[in-house]
Amino acid sequence: MAKITFITSDEQRITLEGYSGSVMALAVENGIKGIDGDCGGVCSCATCHVHVAPEDLSKTGEASEIEADMLELDDDTDQYSRLSCQLQISEELDGLVLRVAK
Amino acid sequence: MKKSEIPDPFAAQRSKCGYETIDDQNDPVTMLLRHKDVRKTAHNYKTFTSETIPGRIVVPSEVNIRDTRQIPFEVDPPKHGAYRSVLEAWFKRPINADYQEALTTIVSSIIEEMLAKESLEVVNEFALPLQSRALTLLLNTPFKESEIWISWGTHVFRSEGEALDADKAIVLYDYIDRELDRAIANPSDDLYSVLMQSDFDGRKLTKEEAKGVMVLTFAGGRDTVINAVTNAIAYFADHPESLERLRKEPEIITNAVEEMIRYFSPLTHMGRVVTENTIVCEHAAKADSRVSLCWASANRDENVFENPNEIVLDRKINPHVGFGFSHHNCLGATHARQIMRILVKEFSEKIKSIDILDMKENIEKWGKFQRKVGYHKISVKFNATTQ
């Protein structure tokens, strides 16, 4: 089990508990504003873009090349950007804080 | 070759130099064929604009058949984003449970109707009515309106054998004008009325702007959806084992639909106009010339996709550009995805196999390339799963 906190663009903090699957799916199931996950998690739409809290980068690791190429062409990308469909929920993500991209 | 196969005519040229210039009514277009170039060019709206003479970014060019600017399709950021934010919530409605329930009823009933037949012609008897009936949900108009749209045929602007048909465009434009006038006089809760009441840039949307959105909605989601639906049926006819797999593993339906969109690429390409002399894919592109983003070629790029010419139903990483890419990605994609997901689910549950009886492929010609995009006609028989 992992507790994951989402901070939405209107500064709401929502903490969810997840057991498996992707972080994107957890967010979509719980109606987190700003995470749409249009493509269902195959890395083709970038509607699940999040910024990882700097202190949590070690938990998520780095984006794959395909994910990084996708992020490179998103306007709101920075060094903390990830596509949440590519983050698989595990105990390692417990305590993770994510800011939903604009 | 299987009947449902859609060959990749761009492979050799994509690997050799990555582009090809073709003529289009004396306004040539350089087709960009590589995934990376297509995405980068789509993203760079400053050098590759969509905001030019209405119709010029479409290939074949529609400058001679329309003056109405399609919105937000033919507008660049930041204005594009402002329009898009007006429309976004409405076009995301397909994620709602009640929308999906209504769509399931539409899909399920047309499948049941067709199961009773000895044979059916998919394009006209299945895909076109399904697309039109589903569109009543997106527009939130009475179901009965779909009968009018079905009577228009498969392409709102095109008739068979004639790529550009001004008379057909007039039918659509007159229809939209009438509907907008009705919405102004008697507002309801349909898209026309919502548009006329929308705030944009400190004012209401004008009728011309609303018309631009409506033309885009009708035209952009017509032959694209019809091709996707028809190609899916042809694919299942050749692959009954896929129907069985999806019946047993419904959790891969989302992946399967994205993969079909990649493989089918229902829209071959879309143009941009170059705003300054530049270089793309080591090719000098001059100001005021046209390039096109060839989604169909990018979606088979072997540098990005393993086994690009196969449908891998559970493909996990699939950065396809079947709905376009970046700012101008398909506004109707949420609706289209739901149609396809529900169609695949209902098919897997209700249909065991499909027999192809007769078919005529729809082959587009782009310079030296001949690309199959779907079918003009395909007659089949649906065989039910035994209950």
Describe this structure in words.
The complex is a heterodimer of chains A (102) and B (387). Chain A is of the alpha+beta class. Chain A has one domain: Beta-grasp domain (Ubiquitin-like (UB roll)), CATH 3.10.20. Chain A is built from three helices and five strands, in the order ββαβααββ. A five-stranded mixed β-sheet of chain A has the order 2-1-5-3-4. Chain A is globular. Chain B has 14 helices and twelve strands. Chain B has helices spanning 11-16, 35-43, 79-91, 97-115, 122-139, 145-151, 166-185, 191-196, 207-220, 223-238, 240-248, 253-264, 295-298, 333-350, and strands spanning 19-22, 29-32, 48-49, 120-121, 199-200, 203-204, 270-274, 278-280, 283-285, 290-293, 351-366, 369-384. In chain B, the strands form four sheets. In chain B, strands 1-2-10-7-3 form a five-stranded mixed β-sheet. In chain B, α5 packs across α10. The two termini of chain B are 33 Å apart. The A-B interface holds A 36, 38-45, 64, 66, 69-70, 73 and B 36, 39-40, 43, 92, 95, 254-255, 257-258, 304, 315-323, 325-326, 329, 333-334, 337.
Give a quick rundown of the structure.
The complex is a heterodimer of chains A (102) and B (387). By secondary structure, chain A is α+β, with helices and mostly antiparallel strands.
Keywords:
heterodimer; A: 102 residues; alpha+beta; Ubiquitin-like (UB roll); 5-stranded mixed β-sheet; 3 helices; 5 strands; 19% helix; 24% strand; globular; B: 387 residues; Cytochrome p450; 3-stranded antiparallel β-sheet
